[in-house]
Each structure stands twice: as C-alpha cells, then as structure tokens.
Amino acid sequence: MKDWFKVLAAGLLVSVICGCSGGNLVKEIHIGLYNNNELKIKLEVMTSKPVDLYAEYWIEGKQPVKYRSTTTGNGTSYKLVLCNILPDTTYSYHIVTVDGGDSVVSKPHTFKSHQLPLFLQEQFHAKTAAKATLPAQFNDGLMLINKRYAPGVAFLVDTKGQIRWYHMIDRLGFKVINFTKDRTLLSILGRNDESTSYGSEILEINMLGDTLLHLTKGQGDFKQTIHHEILKNDKGQLVTIFVDQRLMDLTAIGGGKKDTVNGDGIMVMDKTGKQLYKWSVFDVMDPLKDPKILKTKKDWMHANSLSYDTDGNYLMSFYNNGQIWKIDAHNGKVIYKFGKGGTIAMPADCNFTQAHAAHINKQGNLMFFDNGVEKHQSGVYAMKIDEKNQTSSIAMHITLPKEIFNGRMGSAYLINDTTTLVCCSKRHIIVLANNKGVLQWTMETSVPTYRAGFIKYEQLDPYLKP
C-alpha cells in the first residue's frame, strides 16, 4: 500500500486535482511521507504529458526562502521529495513544469508537517554560554549523532538542538556512522547484546533514507565481527576494523595450550563483501612478548579509530596501549607509533592517556580526543608529526573541565582555527570549546553517542539547507 494511503489516517494527505487549463500540465498531486519519515514529505505528481518538473516550497507566513525538491520518476508520474522540513510547521508549495523551454508555475498549496514522534522529542538540549558568540562556521552545518541501541537512530542536529534529519531502524543500533564524500551515511549496525561499538552488519543509505548497500556477517568474505570504524576509500570500497581471533599456545607464560587472543585488523571489501585487503596486528607484533597478554587476551589492543593520512596510509588508534600508529596501506609495515613507548619522540608536556578519533585535521596535524584516564581529565591534542626526524610538537592542546571527564569513547573535530567540537560520550554531552578550554556552547544528549561529527551545509546540498 502506498505511503500516502497510510498517511491518510494521520490527516496529512492532500489530493489536489489541478486540471490542465491555462497551460498547467499537472493533473493530480498527492502528498504524504517519504519512507514513513516525518521530516521527509513526498509529492506524487501526475501530468498530462512528460515534462521536466520540480516543486518549490517555503514556510508559510515568513519571508519566503524557497527550497527545491528532489525529483524521481519519468513519463507522466513523478515522486518529489521535500527534505528541508521542520516538524509541526505549515508550508506552502507549488509545482513548476518546464515544457519546451516554457515554465509554468502552479497555484500554491499548503500542508502542515507532523510533530516528531514522542520518543524523538526532547532528545537534545543546547545552550550557548553567556556573552559567547558562536562562530559562523558552527551555524553553517549540522552534527551527526548516532543512537547505538535498538531501535537505532541516526540524527543530524543543528546548534539549537533541533533535529533536522533522522533515520531509524527497528531491531539494531547504529554502532558507528560516517558521512561519505558521496553524500551518503555509512554505518556499522549491531544488536544490543553486541559490545559498544561492535556489530555484524554494514548499511549505507542516501539522504532520502533509501538503502544503497546492506551487508550481513556471513556474506562473501565478511566473516568477522567488525567494530569502531567504517569508511569508504577513494575507490568506493569498504574499509573497517575487524576482530582477528587467533588460537595460541600461551603455556610458556602461564596460559593455556589453545588460548584465544583477540587482536585487531584492517579489512577492505567491495560492496559484495569480497575481501580485497587484510592487515592484522599479529603481522607486526607477537602477543608472547606482551607481559600483560594474559590479562588483555580477550581484547589485546582495542583499536578504536581508523582514518587516512594525507599520503593515503592508515592512522589507527589503540585504547589499551594508548598509541596511534601510522600503517603503510600497501605493505602493512608500521611507519610510526605515537604515544608512550612509541617511535616518535614526544614533548614532555604531551601526556595523553588513551585516545579516540585520531585523524589529520584541516591544518595538517594529527588530532585526537585525549581520554585522560590517568589524570581523570580529558582534553584534545593536535600534534605536528615530523616523520623524517621522528619528532613531534604540540600545535594545540585543550584541557577540558574536570566535570566532563570522559574516560571512554569521545571525539574532537575542528570547527575553525579557534574552536573545536568535542563529544564526551559517557557524560552525554557535546561541547564547543575554544583553544583555552572555555566552553562556548553545550548540548546535553539523551543518547551516549560514540562521536559527534560535523557536516557543512554545502556537503548536504540539495537535501538540507540553513
């Protein structure tokens, strides 16, 4: 049954019989929800002949800032999707047909969007600090936030704490989610009984919520549990971290003859689940040489982020040893290890303990969230790495207030040169901090999101606009 019949019971459906007089080629318009999502409105439009067609829409009663629909369909039947929708808001719209270079604008019609479902209301509470002025760049984008437990929800949220976009799945949680250069959302899905950032399915959706890719553990070479990261490389292939289980004889150090050691690896697959590349910590380290292996064998290294350096090689952070590694993407050799006991010399005042969301920021520095486990105070570092001389220096260090100490998970991403968006997952709070650690803005969240990414509106065009 079509969505607009479902919506009829909710009172949103409007059928408009337009006729074809006065050069208007539109015969009928039906309005409802797209993918049963309250923030996506679908217009089913029928015309008397094939034409180019789109809808323009705007908030009723305001200075009209007009938005434009996306278009699907052909022949004389069209499905237009209006994405830039606010809940409980009255909109006007008209249909524009283009036939042989001649444009005809229909008379305006109106509809009122629904309120968000109760379970999506009051999710985020944002507050700007007294006398603080938020940078323009911060208002020029949305935050990507994920609910990790079923029913899973992916959100795009503005600086007011307003949900501008969402996508929900019933039986699984969004364990990890990333926005791709293809304007899609790529995620690891997992059950509630799977660990925090671990899952067994991969889902890619577009901004309309249509499924583009869905892989389940067991398909092709996708045999392992994956966790903490899912990316696309330049070839459009899937890149993730997987659990590498090895049976080992640990009797020499007091363990069993067939002990299981859980390590981490990098796996690249195509969209069918065919394995194209695999790397493992077992390729470069021997668990028998780790004096703590009997205590850590169930989760030896605990890799927690994966990204690319500017030269295409991998950056991988590990929670248990507090290091960030750069790994050659071709031969698998470790280029450097940054952190205590690593190969890169660190300044005396760089005393981070455990790191998350390691990446190269727009200034070219290695940036990461410092969990600060030993000192019970979290922060953010951006480091200049000199690979040739195996040295480093601090480009930026933010010490966060002790009240939002976050010992697990978390992220930090530059908004501009003087402010950073920081996610303190365990504290259920996202903050905007300046380089002195002063909080300019805070947002309490009902969900302990793994990270808070930031996506500019220009990357979301034409689906979402300010």
Low-confidence stretches: 1-11
How many individual helices? 4
Quote the CATH topology of the largest domain: Neuraminidase
The spatial strand order of the largest sheet comes to 1-2-3-7-6
Supply the CATH class of the largest domain: Mainly Beta
Counting structural domains, the number is 2
Biggest sheet architecture = 5 strands, antiparallel
Helix content: under 10%
Q: Structural class, please?
A: mainly beta
* Shape descriptor: globular
Radius of gyration: 25 Å
GO molecular function: aryl sulfotransferase activity
Pfam families: Arylsulfotrans (PF05935)
Protein name: Arylsulfotransferase ASST
SSE diagram, text form:
Elements: H1 3-8, E1 15-17, E2 26-34, E3 37-47, E4 52-59, E5 67-68, E6 70-74, E7 77-82, E8 90-99, E9 102-105, E10 109-112, E11 124-128, H2 136-139, E12 141-147, E13 152-157, E14 163-169, E15 173-179, E16 184-190, E17 198-199, E18 201-206, E19 211-216, E20 226-232, E21 238-248, E22 259-269, E23 275-280, H3 293-296, E24 303-308, E25 314-318, E26 324-327, E27 334-338, E28 355-360, E29 366-370, E30 379-386, E31 391-399, E32 411-416, E33 419-424, E34 429-434, E35 439-445, E36 453-456, H4 457-460
